[in-house]
Design brief:
alpha+beta; Endonuclease III, domain 1; 316 residues; TATA-Binding Protein; five-stranded antiparallel β-sheet; DNA-binding; two-stranded antiparallel ribbon; 15 helices; 3 domains
Length: 316
DNA sequence: CAGGTC
DNA sequence: CCTGG
């Protein structure tokens, strides 16, 4: 089954190549020009979506091929299209953000090589929450192995052309797996949080997708109720799980980048960083931070700065 | 010993 | 608190 997405589905500019080469956290996989991932549909069905580009930056066109190809209902096709559109931000208009970058020499430089890129987000709020919890306290690249382990040990397996693919595990799967198995995924102290959150969702029958309809403030309040979710995790979930642009997460990488490029290398208190972001990147804080923390060591050279922390966006 | 949370 | 650096 092939699904085509063109002008009416994608707001240009759209840079598919960026999506293909950055932040491919399992179950996202990039293979031979195709972006692949397993999806679990509302009715529980597991399928694989393979996305490739046939268009250009200003005339984007994507084709989604779904496997297995048989027995896909019309409403399932629609659902797959919606999921992919959401994850890749196809309907997001980033032009106001680019306009803002024009006035910021650092952001302008950071965005130069990724014009038309749109942040990749998680298909479900649940996957976003677990993903961000795994992102606490680590160098970014470790996130890849944690998510890979969770999927291969606890996700659903599907074989396509002799190759195994895994879905991101459902709350139910996680909630009923022993702590020791979750621990084996090398998630460390996060194991209890991950299991606890899954248990709460199953026991209280919570539909996390409803958070997408709430205001950023209300959604944040709901997120903070879960164990293991503090201000950092809540804000990053809002950014990568709910596509909120007006949130800021401060971790060591973000702090370091802001000190270096906006405060002359001086370590200033968080309050000042927050104030700066709100003032200068108003409404686009999360997009600015995304730009600043992606391939930093590469574009920093154009500004004559030798930035020491590696970004991890490309997954090494 | 990070670093975000408890 | 875990784990990788």
């Amino acid at each position: 089954m092939e699904i085509e997405l063109s002008k009416t589905d994608i707001i240009p500019p759209y840079n598919f190549d960026f999506a293909l080469t950055h932040y491919n956290i399992y179950p996202w996989v990039s293979e031979e020009g195709k972006l692949i991932r397993v999806l679990q549909l509302r009715n529980g069905k597991i399928c694989v979506a393979e996305i490739k580009s046939l268009g250009t930056l200003n005339n984007p066109k994507l084709v989604i091929r779904t496997k297995p190809s048989r027995n896909i209902q019309a409403e399932e096709v629609e659902e797959i299209k919606e999921i992919i559109s959401w994850c890749l931000g196809l309907k997001e208009d980033y032009r106001p953000f680019y306009e803002m970058c024009e006035k910021d020499r650092v952001l302008k430089t950071a965005m130069e090589s990724r014009y038309g890129s749109k942040g990749k987000s998680y298909p479900t709020v649940f996957e976003a929450i677990i993903g961000v919890i795994c992102a606490q306290n680590i160098q970014f690249k470790r996130l890849y192995s944690m998510m890979y382990n969770l999927c291969t040990k606890l996700g659903e397996r599907i074989k396509i052309a002799g190759k195994d693919y895994f879905s991101f595990p459902s709350p139910k799967n996680i909630s009923r797996s022993p702590l020791s198995i979750i621990r084996e995924c090398k998630v460390g102290y996060r194991d209890k949080f991950i299991k606890k959150i899954a248990e709460i969702i199953v026991k209280d029958n919570i539909n996390l997708e409803k958070l997408k309809k709430l205001s950023t403030e209300d959604a944040r309040k709901e997120l903070l109720k879960f164990p293991g979710i503090g201000p950092y995790t809540a804000n990053l979930v809002l950014a990568v799980g709910l596509r909120r642009k007006d949130v800021l997460h401060l971790d060591r990488f973000v702090r370091e980048v802001m000190y270096t490029f906006y405060f002359d290398g001086e370590k200033v208190p968080d309050e000042l960083l927050i104030k700066y972001a709100n003032k200068h990147w108003c409404g686009f804080q999360s997009l600015a931070v995304d730009a600043l923390t992606t391939n930093t060591e590469i574009w920093a050279k154009k500004l004559g700065i030798d930035f020491k922390i590696k970004s991890g966006a490309r997954g090494e």
